[in-house]
Q: What sequence folds into this?
């Protein structure tokens, strides 16, 4: 049984001049041109294969997806199952949603009522017609990925995805989240893990189950004052000391400065507000001392994380984290894409949020390295509790990948 083009009666189509959108389509095109179907199937096995599903069915029962089959005029009277690689995906549409599976899944779930033909990237120069019924499917279902399809790797949409400018910069701010699962870092038209899983993940991790809740969460992440105020207070004190005294800040001096500031703030004072002159109440001494103790403990955590960051190449020697705003702004970039994949927002809305995440990041940091250190510290303070477990090691590995892979936006895009 041969694979690839449609039945010979329709004649070979001369491929037009075409730029493969990503590495996956490039590999498929090269393999098809050589008629190397082993290489073709190996490339397919190493990527997500997306297909349209019924949105009403997914909304009613997310764990059960109902594929939408189609037709191809080159094979009249026969239904086909169109599947798409990530570089060939359509722009998200409110009425059209997708899911994905690995190559072998299609052979495992095939039923006699299903189409007898799977068409990969229909209409493109890298398309192929795969007979999906046994025993023919056995020839391609045995191919396996080089590793988990969702493993960390830097992938780029070379044609059709932003490679420079404010949208690309904002997308790159979310790279630690996106590259972790092997999604193309610059896919603004994000379909992610498919409509059902994207929705369930937003609900589980963020409590987002509607457009209104997405808007609220997106706005919170893009709030310049939305980061943890205690973390930012401590880092701002050190930043001010460093600016005033020209560099290195002794940790003991930093702790003492925090104590002085908090005790000073605890004193009742007269201030001018839009409503007139107001006297602020005095904070009880016990409460003030508890606050001092808490912030000084935080300073210890920060300095120990920074020591580990320097040992692992996240921070240069004698550098320190200036802000954890990146923790919010990086997630804001991700939230825009997750909201789009879940159909809680439109593509223009997601794009505006991504641009704003990039703009705020550029205002707060000097370089990708500074931005990354701020993001990683925020993640660790939020989740890790100085265990230096996977909440830290996973993102440290991703940092190394983004700082070394030639396709990484952190190496190809200027931060300012």
A:
């Amino acid at each position: 049984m041969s694979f690839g083009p449609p039945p010979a009666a329709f004649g070979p189509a001369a491929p037009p001049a075409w730029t493969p959108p990503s590495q996956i389509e490039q590999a498929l095109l090269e393999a098809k041109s050589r008629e190397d179907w082993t290489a073709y199937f190996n490339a397919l096995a190493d990527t997500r294969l997306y297909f349209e599903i019924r949105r009403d069915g997914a909304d009613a029962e997310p764990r059960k997806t109902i594929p939408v089959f189609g037709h191809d005029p080159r094979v009249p009277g026969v239904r086909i199952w169109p599947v798409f690689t990530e570089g060939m995906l359509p722009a998200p549409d409110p009425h059209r949603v997708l899911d994905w599976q690995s190559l072998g899944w299609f052979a495992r779930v095939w039923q006699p009522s299903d189409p007898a033909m799977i068409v990969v990237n229909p209409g493109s120069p890298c398309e192929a017609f795969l007979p999906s019924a046994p025993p023919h499917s056995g020839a391609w279902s045995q191919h396996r990925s080089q590793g988990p399809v969702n493993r960390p790797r830097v992938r780029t949409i070379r044609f059709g995805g932003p490679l420079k400018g404010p949208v690309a910069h904002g997308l790159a701010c979310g790279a630690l989240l996106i590259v972790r699962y092997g999604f193309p870092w610059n896919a603004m038209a994000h379909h992610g893990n498919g409509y059902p899983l994207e929705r369930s993940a937003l609900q589980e991790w963020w409590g987002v189950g509607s457009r209104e809740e997405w808007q609220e969460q997106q706005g919170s992440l893009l709030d310049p004052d939305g980061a943890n105020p205690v973390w930012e207070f401590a880092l701002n004190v050190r930043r001010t000391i460093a600016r005033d005294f020209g560099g290195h800040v002794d940790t003991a001096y930093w702790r003492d400065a925090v104590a002085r500031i908090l005790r000073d703030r605890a004193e009742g004072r007269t201030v001018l507000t839009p409503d007139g002159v107001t006297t602020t109440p005095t904070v009880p001494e016990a409460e003030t001392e508890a606050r001092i103790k808490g912030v000084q403990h935080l300073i210890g955590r920060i300095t120990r994380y920074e020591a580990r960051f320097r040992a692992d190449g996240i921070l240069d020697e004698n550098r320190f984290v200036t802000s954890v705003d990146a923790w919010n702004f990086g997630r804001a970039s991700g939230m825009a894409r997750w909201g789009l994949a879940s159909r809680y927002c439109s593509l223009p809305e997601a794009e505006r949020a991504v641009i704003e995440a990039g703009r705020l990041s550029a205002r707060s940091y000097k370089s990708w390295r500074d931005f990354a250190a701020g993001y990683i510290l925020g993640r660790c303070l939020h989740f890790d509790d100085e265990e230096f477990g996977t909440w830290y090691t996973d993102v440290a590995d991703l940092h190394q990948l983004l700082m070394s892979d030639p396709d990484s936006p952190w190496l190809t895009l200027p931060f300012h």
Summary: The first strand starts at residue 49 and ends at 53.
